[in-house]
Description:
The chain is mainly alpha-helical. Helix content is about 65%, strand content about 5%. The protein folds into two domains: about 45-130, Orthogonal Bundle (Recoverin, domain 1), CATH 1.10.238.10; about 130-235, Recoverin, domain 1, CATH 1.10.238.200. The strands form two sheets. The chain has a two-stranded antiparallel ribbon with strand order 1-2. It has a two-stranded antiparallel ribbon with strand order 3-4. α2 (about 45-50) packs across α5, α4 (about 80-90) packs across α5 and α7 runs antiparallel to α10. The relative contact order is 0.07. InterPro entries: DCN-prot (IPR014764), DCN1-like_PONY (IPR042460), PONY_dom (IPR005176).
Amino acid sequence: MPRRRRVSNDDSTRSYKRAKANSSSRKSAKLASHHSASSNYSSKQCVVWFHEYATADEDVIGPEGMEKFCEDIGVEPENIVMLVLAWKLDAKQMGFFTLAEWLKGFSELQCDSIEKLQAKLEYLRSLLNDAIQFKNIYRYAFDFARDKDQRSMDLDTAKAMLSLLLGRQWVLYSSFHQFLEQSKYRVINKDQWCNVLEFSRTILPDLSNYDVDGAWPVLLDEFVEWLKSKRQQTTTLPPL
């Protein structure tokens, strides 16, 4: 009879490791296959999803459908992530998504269901932390929010949008809001809108680097003058 090979502890360890590796490979392959199947984007499914919110027989989601859409994805309509989503869809009018916009944006995002969009919400929020992307979103917001028959944005809408976009990150936002409240301005044009962002990014809170002879719009010259006067009055008030 042939002699039986003696199995060493090293052989047993190697066999165990191979078996474990093969098992892990099979599990990884199965998970990868499942992930691939669940993440496949379907334009047909995306159209079906769109019509859950669209007005009957129309290729547009209006305010009522938008409210239901926000409820389903668990996001308040005034949440800034909805503005980022509108930007991704290149939506032309606040409160409305057309089928063409829906398909364009969600094809890029590879979303055809509530669950897939919810999984993308953190990514959409993260775009606000990128200076270039934020600037693009900020500029987009002007044309998105203004009345389409007007070239400027009415002041109430401008204040709401500025609060959404700059309220938490611009130290002087509260002062600027107060200035707009008491100012003569009733609308904000696009040049003023874009310069407000530039001002918020470059001018120090103490206004020491503001150049009165610079190319800033009169709106911001008046804001600086108003704020300096307000601060001076505060510092010269007699003690109680």
